[in-house]
């Protein structure tokens, strides 16, 4: 049944259950920045601002790691996909960054207080309900699932 036929059929309703996006960008800082902006533009108004802030932070970390630590996909690319499953009870966003892989899989690592980097996956783990790494014939995907109640508010800054 087409959506129009469903809209016209008595007693039938259509509900948006999930939306998905995929972007391929150059394997460099400019490509990662463009992917983050595209994600933010597409999700603004679709998910609560608090969830969007967390999604942007996690995407920035995963994309940055792909550029800094992994090989590109063929064509010198990285892929960012995301999907939204609206609540209730919670809105959920799944982010997946796919690259050509690295010699060592991404993992949480302990760093000292003077280290200038190495804390990014701790942020991902803190913000995501779940996260993980998958390898396939194409390369490596790092994914994160974020979910927030629709009424959660950001704490004031300052």
Protein model, in words:
A 5-stranded antiparallel sheet has the order 1-2-3-5-4, covered by helices on one side. It is 32% helix and 27% strand. Residues 1-6 and 150-158 have low confidence and may be disordered. By secondary structure, the chain is an alpha+beta fold.
Q: Kindly report the spatial arrangement of strands forming the biggest sheet.
A: 1-2-3-5-4
Mean pLDDT: 85
- State the separation between the terminal residues, measured CA to CA: 53 Å
> What fraction of the residues are assigned to beta strands by DSSP?
25-35%
Characterize the biggest β-sheet. Answer: 5 strands, antiparallel
Q: What is the SS-derived class?
A: alpha+beta
Radius of gyration: 18 Å
**Separate helix tally:** 4
SSE order = HEHHEEHEE
Total beta strands:
5
Q: Based on CA inertia axes, which overall geometry fits?
A: globular
Outline the low-pLDDT stretches.
1-6, 150-158
* Residue share in helix: 25-40%
List key phrases describing it.
158 residues; alpha+beta; 5 strands; disordered C terminus
Q: What's this entry about, in short?
A:
The protein has 158 residues and is an alpha+beta fold.
How would you summarize the topology of this molecule?
Layout (H helix, E strand, L loop, with lengths): L2 H6 L10 E8 L2 H15 L5 H21 L7 E9 L4 E10 L20 H8 L2 E6 L4 E10 L9
Antiparallel strand pairs: 1-2, 2-3, 3-5, 4-5
Helix pairs in contact: 2-3, 3-4
């Amino acid at each position: 049944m087409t959506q129009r036929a469903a809209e016209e059929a008595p007693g039938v309703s259509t509900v948006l259950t999930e939306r998905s996006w995929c972007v391929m960008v150059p394997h460099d800082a400019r490509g990662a920045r463009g992917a983050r902006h595209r994600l933010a533009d597409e999700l603004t108004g679709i998910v609560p601002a608090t969830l969007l802030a967390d999604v942007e932070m996690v995407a920035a970390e995963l994309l940055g790691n792909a550029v800094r630590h992994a090989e590109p996909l063929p064509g010198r690319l990285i892929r960012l996909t995301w999907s939204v499953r609206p609540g209730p009870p919670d809105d959920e966003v799944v982010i997946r960054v796919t690259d050509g892989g690295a010699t060592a899989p991404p993992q949480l690592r302990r760093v000292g207080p003077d280290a200038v980097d190495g804390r990014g996956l701790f942020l991902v783990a803190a913000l995501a309900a779940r996260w993980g790494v998958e390898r396939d014939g194409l390369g490596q995907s790092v994914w994160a699932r974020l979910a927030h109640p629709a009424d959660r508010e950001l704490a004031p800054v300052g």
